[in-house]
Automatic annotation (TrEMBL):
UniProt-listed SUPFAM superfamilies: MFS general substrate transporter (SSF103473)
Superkingdom classification of source: Bacteria
Subcellular location: Cell membrane
Transmembrane listed as a keyword: yes
UniProt-recorded name of the protein: MFS transporter
Bilayer topology: Multi-pass membrane protein
Length: 401
């Protein structure tokens, strides 16, 4: 395997995958076409429902059929989502588009990380994963920030042409995946490459048993999975609520796009720092989680300057947590179940989002966005030491066995 060529393709795929110019204005597009806010909320619900249901099956597909094939399929689903949205004439078409968009993210989630780690492992360079993944994650966040900035261009292009561009970008993303090389580091992966559909039912049953057994026998790894998901939920909701909260706190609407770009770039800076940080995993994650919670609390302030700085602090710290936990988890995971187990991480996140989103939304409606942000930040500050103590308990228990 040519590792340099492999990572050029991975970086290009990662950039194109996150470059979705319609993401910042899709709600505006739907409202302009006559759909209601309630329908927009239902469409978002369809996205999360499909994401939850398909997360682990998509990871299994990557492990059993090949990571390269799965990434190609992700690009095709992205194109299908944009096409269904562009040609939709009723609400059913909108929901179908959201379902394909969720499936696109499912197919990439876990698959790209697994392919990256095993590409390095095939070359005996898996210790470089933290640094390599930092570049990939930083590029992804930069691309997402550029997508926010291009929201105005998408609005100027109009509904149909903006989604046509989005479909084209996803198609190019899928073509880029075709240039990747499938890493083969175990005997099962070599057999899969030769006969990908041979004995699939039996392999699927065995795969499920091995994955469940791994999580049951490695409670510290399960604890890391839950911790990463629990830390990520407040950050996503903070970014979502911050958009309107900044305007309500005095930020002129003309500067909203620039403010959100600063939050995104704070996340990119966190990735850059996390990739070079030499601190041990446990104190690093606990400290960053507490600081992220403090940032979320600051984001709830009634003046836009501390609110913006709080959102930036939370995003910065969360990027460090995500990067360090991802590297540690991939060191724990066996190669044959890697994509599936990474998908478990994403599924736990979706479960927590299903509970946290309506709860904080109800708090926001009843008491205001500030108190919803304070609730999120306060829970994270309080929970981080508790889960840290539980993790240490599991560590001591293992040493005493």
């Amino acid at each position: 395997m040519n590792l340099k060529k492999q990572f050029i393709s991975l970086h290009l795929y990662n950039f194109l995958f996150s470059l979705r110019i319609t993401d910042a204005v899709w709600v505006v597009f739907l409202l302009d076409r006559g759909f209601s806010l309630a329908q927009v909320g239902i469409a978002e619900g369809v996205f999360h429902l499909v994401s939850f249901v398909c997360e682990i099956p998509s990871g299994m597909a990557a492990d059993l059929l090949g990571r390269k094939r799965t990434l190609i399929a992700a690009g095709l689903c992205g194109s299908a989502s944009a096409v269904f949205m562009a040609f939709s004439t009723d609400f059913g078409g909108i929901c179908l588009s959201m379902a394909f968009q969720a499936l696109m993210y499912n197919l990439c989630s876990g698959t790209q990380e697994a392919l990256t780690y095993d590409s390095l492992k095939a070359a005996g360079l898996q210790e470089q994963y933290l640094k390599r993944n930092a570049w990939l994650l930083g590029l992804s966040q930069t691309s997402a920030a550029i997508s926010c900035a291009l929201g105005g261009l998408a609005a100027a292009l109009g509904f149909f042409r903006a989604y046509a561009v989005s479909a084209l970008l996803s198609a190019v993303c899928g073509v880029t995946a075709m240039t990747l090389t499938e890493p083969l580091v175990t005997q099962s992966q070599r057999q899969r490459a030769e006969r990908p559909f041979s004995g699939l039912g039996l392999r699927l049953k065995e795969h499920v048993i091995l994955s469940v057994r791994f999580l049951r026998e490695h409670p510290r790894t399960a604890c890391k999975i839950f911790s990463g998901a629990a830390a990520g939920v407040p950050i996503y909701l903070t970014f979502m609520y911050l958009q309107q909260h900044l305007l309500n706190s005095g930020l002129p609407s003309v500067f909203l796009g620039g403010a959100l770009l600063l939050v995104r770039f704070a996340g990119t800076a966190g990735v850059a720092v996390g990739g070079k940080l030499k601190a041990r995993l446990f104190p690093c994650v606990i400290l960053c989680a507490v600081c992220s919670g403090i940032g979320t609390v600051l984001a709830g302030f009634g003046w836009w300057i501390p609110a913006l700085l709080g959102g930036m602090l939370a995003q910065f710290m969360d990027s460090i947590i995500a990067l360090r936990l991802d590297a540690s988890l991939n060191d724990d995971f066996p190669s044959d179940q890697r994509a599936t187990l990474v998908s478990v991480d994403s599924m736990v996140y979706s479960l927590l989002m299903i509970a946290a989103s309506p709860l904080t939304g109800a708090v926001g409606d009843a008491l205001g966005a500030s108190r919803a942000l304070w609730l999120l930040g306060g829970c994270l500050v309080a929970a981080a030491p508790v889960f840290g103590a539980f993790y240490q308990f599991l560590l001591r228990k293992k040493r005493n066995v």
